[in-house]
Design goal:
Elements (H helix, E strand, L loop, with lengths): L5 E4 L4 H14 L4 E5 L5 H6 L2 E3 L5 H11 L3 E4 L5 H6 L1 H20 L5 E7 L23 H20 L2 E7 L1 E3 L12 H11 L2 E4 L7 E5 H13 L11 E2 L3 E3 L1 H11 L4 E4 L3 H6 L9 H7 L7 H15 L5
Parallel strand pairs: 1-2, 1-4, 2-3, 4-5, 5-6, 6-10, 7-9, 8-12
Antiparallel strand pairs: 9-11
Helix pairs in contact: 1-8, 5-6, 7-9, 9-12
Length: 320
């Protein structure tokens, strides 16, 4: 494993902040280069190399490749769903052209493997929302979902046409205590913990019964690395694998939090993000991932809530 040199774009984001640390644990601190236009967490900055990098700058990408000679790139940089709806053309430009630059560098043989994060946002209206299957029709309703679906097809194209070993997961909503919400439709499931601890109340921008697929970050990081380490011969999906974990609605996570913070209260004021959520799956069928590379999640709702509250109390120095 120490022979791998890995560049992570978007390393200061929600996934990157956790993924970089786990990759450094596995491959060595000096062998995992974190990059972003934003400053990373103190832990990421102090544990290994960090490079300022705007993923729209192809020349800078080529400089980093020449300097570090990576074997893999995890391309996490993207504009998320809710933010993307405010600036759709910028979101498309960022999400699409940065991926194509990396795929082109891989096609030219500068590194051997790419990871591209997709999302449940590729689904949309008129789908089977319960246990949405791997090959369900896609009808994304946001520029984020459109860009992710296009990205999946480009990944599949580069694999079939040029043999680029690019791998992808359709992430559900991700929940982490290390980074705060970053502009996604599922971000209420992170913000609710901060508000529960600081104010003992939360106003949800989704309705009480809007269930969505979710996952604790530790499971998402495990899935990402498991897929990247899987035997190429076992992989049957070259667009993006469905990834399932837990599904819940705001009223359900609120009830679980209330078990730990009895005075916690929640109310509901759905906004434009409700319209986005209404087009997404309620739960995900990830049989292909479980069959091809033995994926399985570890955290249920009860475990996730307990862990989030424990970690955030320490992080925020909350005394209860």
């Amino acid at each position: 494993m120490s022979n791998e040199i890995i560049i992570v774009t978007g390393a200061s984001g929600q996934i990157g902040s956790d993924l970089v640390l786990k990759l450094r644990e596995l491959y060595g601190n000096d062998n995992v280069i974190a990059t972003d236009i934003k400053d990373p967490s103190k832990e990421v900055l102090e544990s290994g190399p960090f490079e300022e990098f705007n993923v729209m700058n192809r020349e800078r990408l080529q400089e980093l490749i020449k300097q570090y000679k990576p074997t893999q790139i995890y391309h996490l940089a993207a504009m998320l769903s809710a933010t993307g709806e405010k600036m759709p053309l910028k979101a498309w430009d960022l999400n699409m052209n940065s991926l194509l630059s990396i795929l082109e560098e891989a096609r030219e043989g500068h590194f051997k493997r790419v990871f591209f994060p997709s999302s449940i946002a590729v689904y949309g209206r008129n789908i089977a929302r319960e246990q949405t299957p791997q090959h369900s029709p896609k009808n994304p309703s946001t520029v984020y979902g459109i860009s992710k679906l296009a990205g999946e097809k480009w990944c599949e194209y580069y694999y079939n046409r040029y043999g680029v070993d690019v791998r992808s997961l359709r992430y559900p909503g991700l929940i982490s205590w290390k980074t705060e919400a970053g502009g996604g439709t599922t971000d209420y499931a992170v913000d609710i913990f901060y508000k529960a601890l600081s104010e003992k109340k939360y106003t949800s921008f989704l309705s009480a019964s809007t269930a969505l697929p979710m996952m604790y970050m530790d499971d998402a990081i495990k899935a990402t690395i498991d897929l990247m380490q899987a035997d190429e011969k076992e992989l049957t999906v070259r667009s993006s694998y469905n990834l399932g974990g837990i599904s819940f609605a705001p009223k359900e996570i609120a009830a679980e939090i209330k078990k730990h913070i009895p005075e916690f209260k929640i109310d509901y004021e759905p906004d434009y993000r409700q319209t986005i959520a209404d087009t997404w799956p309620i739960s995900i069928n990830d049989t292909s991932a479980r069959t091809d590379w033995n994926w399985q999640h570890n955290y249920n709702l009860e475990d996730m809530v307990k862990e989030m509250l424990t970690q955030l109390k320490e992080k925020l120095n909350v005394i209860t």
